[in-house]
Amino acid sequence: MKFPQWWGDPINRNYLYAFFKNFAFFSAVLIPFFTDWGHISLFQVQLLQSWFSVWVFLLEIPTGAVADKIGRKHSLILGSATIALATIVYGCFPSFSIFLLAEFLFALGYALNSGADQALLYDTLKSQGREGESKKILGRSDALMLAGMMVAAPIGSILASRLGLNAPQYLTAIPMLIASAIAWSIPEPKYHSQSESKKYFDIIKYGFATIRHNPVIRTLALDSVVVASAAYFVVWFYQPMMSNLGIPIIYFGLAHAGLLLSEILVSSHFHFLEKIIGSGAAYLHHSAILVSLVFVLAALFPILSSIGMVRRLALVILNPIIGFAATRSFPLALLIVGLFPLFSLLIKEEV
């Protein structure tokens, strides 16, 4: 079998892996899948997310050691294959216990992929003497990952409307296995950068030390955690809002793709936005006001909103709290999340 010429460059195979690694059909119909097909409450949905976050945190270092032992490409192969298994488990039977198992498998697969993909790409660049291009090429890889998510979301909502709400889950196994096969085709570079498990431990140690001793970084960190934690719930709330408005599921994917597109536009033009607003700190404060305004408006009016480790740990606590509030009163949950980022404005200005 003759492959296209571009296939011969391992960098292009890394790009293709990035496109498929998060090609999740289910992303656009998560809430209908959980509540309508899985018959669980929003509180239980957020418990699952906290369960996932705890396991990701616990598995990061041991899976980093696995990547060091068997190689980054093999870690990616196992990670994508594990996520494929998780999607099949998720879509096989509507049970909270089954969902707990599936989320553990998701966390294991995520941890096996986390860091190993960028390390493999960087080591490939290093072996080619192109490490000077790392910023551009790693950024392109991230953009392709978001592009894959954008393409998958509308397809997933079509699959859900035609084949059932669990179909996007188990059919996501297909692109995950494709990603695993692509990872298998990527040659393991002879050059290896710093140990994944050691690097992760060093990042934790250095990061917390910097936050503890540097008041500027501490203020920015608190701001970003509070605002990002609130913005995180956009993904979990826009789908119930669309359902409440009677919008057919087939359109959910377009809304999800729109959110991803806005993320791409903001991240790719951050330097331009920072020039307009003035500084990174001012950007965080303005984003706090924007996130709050959108959530509060969404709580008061029937409209559609388009709106690191510390954040993940914060969400372990926030997920069940907000999920419980949403189970009791969805507008109340929107209002709470909408007001939450405003607390970042009360943080003592130190920057």
Describe the model.
There is one protein chain. The protein has one domain (10-346): MFS general substrate transporter like domains (Growth Hormone, Chain: A, Up-down Bundle). It is built from 17 helices and no strands. The protein has 351 residues and is mainly α.
CATH topology tier name: Growth Hormone, Chain: A
Helix proportion range: over 70%
The termini sit apart by: 59 Å
Compute the gyration radius: what is it? 21 Å
- For this structure, what is the CATH homologous superfamily? MFS general substrate transporter like domains
Integer tally of domains? 1
Q: Biggest sheet, in brief?
A: none
Report the top-level CATH class.
Answer: Mainly Alpha
- Uncertain residue ranges: 287-302
Order of helices and strands: HHHHHHHHHHHHHHHHH
Helices, by number, come to 17
Task: Report the sheet-strand fraction.
Answer: under 5%
Arithmetic mean pLDDT: 76
Overall form: globular
Quaternary structure state of the chains depicted: single chain
The CATH architecture assignment turns out to be Up-down Bundle
Number of strands: 0
